[in-house]
Amino acid sequence: MNDILSLLKSHKSIRRFQKKPIEKDLIKEIVEAAQSASTSSFMQAYTIIQIDNPIARKEIAHLCGDQKYVEEAPLFFVFCADLNHIDLACQQNSTAMKKGYTETFIIATIDASLAAQNALIAAESMGLAGVFIGGIRNNPEKIVKLLEIPSNAYPVLGMCIGYPDQHPEIRPRLPIDVIYKIDKYSNEGEISKIQDYDKSVSEYYYRRTKGKRKEGWSQQMASKMEGELRPHMKEFLAKQGFIMK
């Protein structure tokens, strides 16, 4: 296994960071690595916002569900799906960009996500660590107002980065033959494999929390999916110009 594979397979979400600033040249490297991610049709349909203002950080941490590490991390990014660069390119060429299509929403969302993944991998390669913050979508209208994000853009996720101050065990993933298929989709035999996986996840949490937590993966998913998941997002996206036609 080479160094890149070792890095990819050793990923852990880190939420506690040393009180040590990240050098500006490292931040530049992270952003440039994000820019090097694959992008659909060369659209580069995303914007990365670095939040340094401590008042804004505190408010974002609250809006994300009182996630204190959003406020405390040395570096915090918001990755936005963004079609405004493309709109300007169209205007420059005397063309009107057709707006509101589901496909452009998908493209921009994927572009932002790929850029974010590249950014985190780059950070980890330099001895840093971090965690994605999906809670940025808990109160997206307030985030948009706070960060002055225009129409045809929306915050996909946040990201905390810093020098790690914790070293948790790697969380086990689903068995490879549950997520990896050849030639056609089949979930034959997956229930028993997920049951075995539940035991591994339960043991992981038991060790990590010293017996305070021991639910399996399927229990977590059942609990999460029995309730509504950010039902405000469809209306919010339409207000931002992503009408999904």
State the CATH class of the largest domain.
Alpha Beta
Q: Reading side by side through the largest sheet, how are the strands ordered?
A: 1-2-4-3
Question: How would you name the CATH homologous superfamily of the largest domain?
Answer: NADH Oxidase
Unreliable spans: none
- Indicate how many domains the architecture comprises: 2
Percent of residues in helices: 40-55%
The rounded distance between the terminal residues' Cα atoms is 45 Å
Give the overall average pLDDT.
97
CATH architecture of the largest domain: 3-Layer(aba) Sandwich
- Count of distinct strands: 4
Strand content: 5-15%
User: Could you name the CATH topology of the largest domain?
Assistant: NADH Oxidase
Topology as H/E string?
HHEHHEHHEHEHHHH
The total count of helices amounts to 11
Shape: globular
- The chain-level structural class is alpha+beta
